[in-house]
């Protein structure tokens, strides 16, 4: 059995939300900024974003991450099927977007546990995003 202090430390580590572990809204905003920069410089996907308003997409992605990772924010955008309807996004593009996210997480020194959680969340949304 753990000494009480060890238990307390482990409990804090285990119960912090992904939102808290990423540094709350400022931490997530900084990561989303780099995800956007990676998308617009990635030849596999950048043409998709030519007509987008960068500030609006970044705000919506930030809100979605904050809300989905345990923060107090509400997501005000469309659901994933509606947001990607008519784009016919393929598997290569989906992987490219995931790679852009992982690259941004690396840049911000996000740990393996958080990286794995985020990758699982992204992958769980795949069927709502591709071939819509
Ligand atoms: C799990 C993966 C993805 C997530 C979580 C995601 C998330 C989002 C969110 C939150 C929005 C804004 C929703 C709104 O406009 O109401 C959005 C829009 C968009 N996404 Fe995704 N996305 C994903 C994958 C992709 C992929 C693979 C592509 C293709 C390269 C893509 C291209 C776009 C484009 C072009 C927009 C529209 C931007 C605009 O309206 O100007 N997304 N996405």
UniProtKB/TrEMBL annotation:
The keyword Cell inner membrane does not apply. Transmembrane segments: none annotated. Heme binds at residue 84. Keywords: Heme, Iron, Metal-binding, Transport. It comes from the Bacteria. It holds the Pfam family Bac_globin. GO terms for molecular function: heme binding; metal ion binding; oxygen binding. InterPro entries: Globin-like_sf, Globin/Proto, Hemoglobin_trunc. This is Group 1 truncated hemoglobin. It comes from Parasulfuritortus cantonensis.
